[in-house]
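Before the break, one more example. Copy the sequence into your notebook; we will annotate it together after we see the structure.
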Amino acid sequence: MFGGLRGKRILITRPRTQGSRLNERLREYGAQVLWIPAIETLPEPPDEAGRALLSDLGRFDWVAFTSENALKYFLKLLEADGLALSKRTRVASVGAATSRACKEAGLLVHAQPEVFTGEALGRLLAGQYRPGTLLLPRGTAGREELADLLRASGWSVETLTCYRTRPARIHAQELWELEQGLDAALFASPSAAKALWEALSPIGREALRAALILPIGPTTAEALEELGLSPSPPPEETTSEGLVAALLRHFGGASPAGSA
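Here is what the structure looks like once it is written out:
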């Protein structure tokens, strides 16, 4: 244990299936972690149009993943139907964590923007590659910036809904623990921010307002601002290590090895 966050009460809101690394790193630095999953993700069976897309994967020049969940549930669909991406299909990815997950799945990432947003990926593809056909796996609440920007640049974009997100059940004991006060709250998605906010009592909302609010990226920061909160700037690296490094800088501890 390193101790740079010793005694700090830090909230994380990621699902249990995704937050383990972040939880471990915070505890290594001595933080008291309050882990309240605010959302959960579930597979969304494709409709008839989605099935048609899956049966014709070979026609796509690109597939773009804007989150780890998009990759995870898309690969589950392929596995269930015994399908695979064409070797000629190039992969685009938003964020270091998503690109790492692509690599772990055996996919070579050909394009990743420096700013980790769908809009930034759209500008990268539209600016550096000739228009082509692109498949965009996403959730039911997926944002439109990437698809709209590419279509305006002459690309053919098809969206494939493969998962959905819903608020998780938050227990009264967890809400009470949050009401006792926080030093920092970490948010990794707009849906987690909105789900937690709607579950909080007035006392809980005040406890959140009094804490350092750290979003993982600009899209999440925008969602927090829409709730009337004042988030800190997102970390340069949108990963668990990036969040921990930002906390350490704020609270005066040493940055993790290998982090900016």
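The chain has a mean pLDDT of 90. The domain at 9-38+168-251 is CATH 3.40.50.10090 (Rossmann fold). Try to locate both features in your own notes.
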